[in-house]
Write a structure and sequence with these properties.
The longest helix has 31 residues. The protein is 29% helix and 31% strand. The strands form three sheets. Strands 2-4-5-6-3 form a five-stranded antiparallel sheet. With 177 residues, it is of the alpha+beta class. Strand 5 and strand 6 form a beta hairpin.
């Protein structure tokens, strides 16, 4: 497969923050922002792979500054690194006050997206290469972030196995098990 530059997957989304998007503090729901991040990340990954993708993980999302009702939220995403079937996607979200022009980064996130074939099985993706200074910086740190994610996934599986899927109560009596 022929390698592609990071910029080929660049995806940008702008949304006006309206009252139904906000909580009782007049700021964007964190879950709404996370949905935007997942959406723009999936578009960037599919654009790179030119095949369907699924989200394998989202690294921590720290809400750095509130996104206020009436502002806009602009998300930029692109593929920064690839493995055999997976892609790391970097997402940056910026809030803008349309009246003053003030802009602030409200969060950044890394997503791991996996390309899938028609049977829903992971399938190979083309390599990616960085060109800009920022892309190179992100690309250079990607393998250590991938190693961290793999270790975190092992820990998550261990927790899932330890606690299982059983109800924490007896479903026939509704009493604690």
């Amino acid at each position: 497969m022929e390698a592609k530059p990071c910029v080929n997957s660049l995806t940008v989304r702008n949304s006006h923050v309206l009252p139904p998007d906000t909580n009782s503090h007049g700021t964007l729901f964190g879950g709404r922002l996370m949905a935007y991040i997942d959406d723009v990340g999936a578009i960037a990954a599919a654009r790179h792979a030119r095949m369907p993708v699924v989200t394998a993980s989202i690294d921590s999302v720290d809400f750095l500054t509130p996104v206020k009702e009436g502002n806009t939220i602009c998300l930029e995403a692109y593929v920064t690194w690839t493995h055999r079937t997976s892609m790391e996607v970097f997402v940056k979200a910026v809030t803008e006050n349309l009246l003053t022009g003030d802009r602030e980064v409200c969060t950044t996130a890394f997503l791991t997206m996996v390309a899938i074939d028609d049977d829903g099985k992971p399938t190979e993706v083309p390599p990616v290469y960085p060109e800009s200074k920022e892309e190179k910086w992100l690309h250079e740190g990607a393998s250590s972030r991938a190693e961290y994610r793999n270790n975190r996934r092992k820990d998550s599986k261990e927790l899932a196995n330890k606690f299982g899927a059983d109800f924490p109560w007896d479903p026939t009596t509704n009493q604690k098990a």
